[in-house]
Write a structure and sequence with these properties.
The complex is a heterodimer of chains A (183) and B (403).
Chain A (H helix, E strand, L loop, with lengths): L1 H18 L1 H4 L10 E2 L2 H5 L16 E3 H16 L27 H11 L10 H14 L9 E3 H6 L8 E2 L15
Antiparallel strand pairs in A: 2-3
Helix pairs in contact in A: 4-6, 5-6
Chain B lengths: L1 H25 L32 E4 L5 E4 L17 E3 L12 E6 L5 E4 H6 L3 E8 L16 H5 L2 E10 H8 L7 E6 L6 E5 H6 L2 E6 L2 E2 L9 E3 L12 E7 L6 H4 L4 E2 L5 E2 L8 E6 L10 E10 L5 E7 L7 E2 L1 E2 L9 E9 L4 E9 L8 H8 L12 E4 L5 E3 L2
Parallel strand pairs in B: 4-13
Antiparallel strand pairs in B: 1-2, 2-3, 4-5, 6-7, 7-10, 8-9, 8-13, 10-11, 10-12, 14-15, 16-17, 17-21, 18-19, 18-22, 20-21, 22-23, 23-24
The chains are: A mainly alpha (183), B alpha+beta (403).
């Protein structure tokens, strides 16, 4: 078991020094502080969704389920028609900073709903409910024209948001385009 | 010991008797009578408060109680450091109360050794301490379409400056050993919303660090206690508070807060993404909106300049609506990615005018006017407003925001 692991580590170390090590590797000594953890422990912390779909959970939800959850848990702040209720601090989801149509990836819509909403009880939606809400919002904002839409990991991953190519890295932004080569 | 004290008290009594006896005489002199003894030294008061005469206060608010924050009273600021209790704050899910003995940080993803660190672990690593400003990307957002804020607290109060102490990210990443094609880090907070942002790895390896202390003491809860990310010069939102997890990856995550929320809309429906730098900016904090000059004469113009891309190299002042400019004195210390206090002596002739400042950093970048910003951004911009601020001085000395 240990022998096998050390072989992997050796191979990784060589690969690192070849591909990347030259850029960031330093001669820094190891302090030996902290506790190494395995996948089971990491799974207790890690529930983000990558843009390639990594992390999307099992389950599914349709527009009808999403609409039901929306009316009970979301409409109070976001408004019956997603117009936003100013007194509750919520802006419209139809335009501006929170325009759902403009999002580059549907993965981050699912991720944010599941991690941060509803505001007063974040992290309590089931995966099915989060899929359902994602479907409801994409239909309600006209991104997908299918009133019976059902979403799951595979279908969320496959969505190409219409505005994705409108995201630009301005040369004057002082952010080097190199950092986004494979966006 | 006892004798000494009795002797002291006797002397004290003798002295006050003498004062009483002399009071008739004292009335004829200009001698101001002593205050007598002050407040008793209360051993139960172990953290000093301000004088009750000092009322500088944050403007704090939230529509729903959970998302919102507080603005720093820059009009009363002196020097470059913001007192921790007056540091601006922006929250997306309230302020969590975290017991540091239970707080853990996981670093995982493209590293050889995935590890969990306790606060005790993190305090054992070699530390760094730096003065840096933090500014919300939306500082001055309301000013895009016209002057709205009355005071500099309302127009510019989402910037503050502190000494931050903690562990460099490069020390932690080198401890774990990055592998594969690492280009980005996901930073996740432990607030209710588990707020996430993607940080480019070159920045992590350059000067980003995990801070546990601010201005010589552990972080305040609303500043991320017990641990926050400091990404010097980058927009405030990336300086994730209450940090619990860092994942090393090969692509940005395009999280909620970095896709449309903190990105900059551009003409033709385009959106400028990953606009991290808080560019060079300055503002006159005194005299400023809501103040009133007490007649013609000498006033010190005082303000703050800063740049997320480097060090302030100069601040210029105009007291004639931008017709002529003079260099202000930089009070120092002048540090990179840090508030820099400037001052300028001014004799007001009592005539109506506007006063303004502009800042240049050591990359040669100069703070733009609103007209110049519009050319770049269009009038629809909201975030990253670093335009020149004008204060109007009326004949009666009243100062107002004309933006």
């Amino acid at each position: 078991m240990f022998a096998k692991h050390s072989k992997i580590i050796t191979i990784t170390a060589i690969a690192t020094s070849l591909s990347f090590g030259a850029l960031y590797a330093t001669a820094q000594e190891k302090y030996g502080i902290g506790t190494s953890v395995g996948p089971d422990e990491i799974a207790k912390y890690d529930n983000d969704i990558h843009i390639d779909g990594t992390g999307l959970p099992e389950g599914s939800g349709n527009v009808a389920l999403g609409r039901e959850i929306y009316e009970y848990q979301c409409a109070l702040c976001h408004g019956e028609k997603l117009e936003g209720v100013r007194e509750m601090g919520a802006q419209t989801l139809h335009e501006g900073r929170r325009d759902i149509k403009k999002l580059p990836y549907a993965t981050s819509l699912f991720d944010f709903i599941r991690r941060a909403m509803p505001l007063t009880d974040p992290g309590t939606l089931s995966n099915d409910e989060a899929y359902g809400l994602t479907a409801f919002l994409l239909v309600e904002t006209g991104v997908i024209n299918d009133p019976n839409l059902t979403l799951d990991a595979e279908s969320v991953k496959a969505i190409k948001m219409p505005n994705r190519d409108k995201f630009i890295i301005d040369p004057a932004s002082r952010f080097t385009a190199k950092d986004l080569e494979d966006k | 010991m006892k004798t000494n004290r009795r002797h002291f008290m006797k002397a004290g009594m003798a002295m006050s008797t003498a004062l009483l006896a002399d009071s008739a005489l004292a009335q004829d002199t200009t001698l101001i009578p002593s205050r007598g003894p002050g407040e008793m030294i209360d051993s139960s008061v172990t953290y000093a408060d301000r004088s009750p005469f000092v009322k500088d206060a944050k403007m704090r608010g939230s529509a729903n109680g959970l998302s919102g924050g507080g603005f720093t009273p820059l009009q009363h600021s002196r020097g470059m450091v913001t007192p921790s209790g007056l540091h601006f704050e922006v929250h997306h899910s309230g302020v969590p109360e975290i017991d540091p003995s239970e707080h853990k940080l996981l670093i995982h993803g493209l590293v050889d050794d995935e590890k969990i660190f306790t606060m005790e672990d993190l305090l054992r690593f070699p530390s760094v301490s730096h003065f840096h400003f933090l500014e919300c990307a939306g500082n001055g957002m309301g000013e895009w379409m016209g002057p709205r804020g009355k005071t500099v607290q309302q127009t510019h109060g989402l910037t503050s400056c502190s000494e931050w102490t903690g562990v460099p990210l490069k020390v932690l990443l080198n401890e774990l050993g990055v592998r594969g094609d690492p280009k980005w880090l996901l930073a996740e907070g432990d607030d209710g919303a588990r707020m996430t942002r993607s940080i480019p790895i070159w920045k992590a390896m350059d000067d980003a660090f995990l801070a546990y202390a601010q201005n010589g003491e552990f972080l305040r809860p609303e500043q991320g206690f017990p641990l926050r990310l400091i990404v010097p010069g980058f927009e405030g939102n990336m300086n994730v508070k209450w940090i619990r997890r860092l994942e090393v990856g090969d692509k940005p995550w395009w999280t909620h807060h970095e896709n449309t929320e903190y990105a900059d809309p551009r003409p033709k429906d385009e959106i400028r993404a990953f606009s991290f730098y808080m560019e060079a900016r300055s503002v006159i904090t005194s005299p400023s909106g809501g103040m009133k000059l007490n007649g013609p004469g000498f006033y010190e113009i005082s303000g703050l300049g800063w740049s997320g891309a480097g060090t302030v190299s100069k601040v210029e002042i105009s007291t004639d609506d931008g017709k002529t400019w003079q260099g202000a004195s930089l009070q120092g210390p002048v540090l990179p990615k840090c508030h820099t206090r400037f001052t300028h002596p001014w004799r007001w002739d009592g005539k109506e005018t506007t006063i303004l400042s502009r800042c240049t950093d050591d990359t040669g970048y100069t703070q733009p006017t609103y007209d110049e910003m519009y050319k770049l951004q269009g009038p629809i911009g909201m975030m990253h407003n670093n335009a020149i601020q004008k204060w109007h001085v009326a004949q009666d000395g009243e100062i107002t925001n004309v933006r």
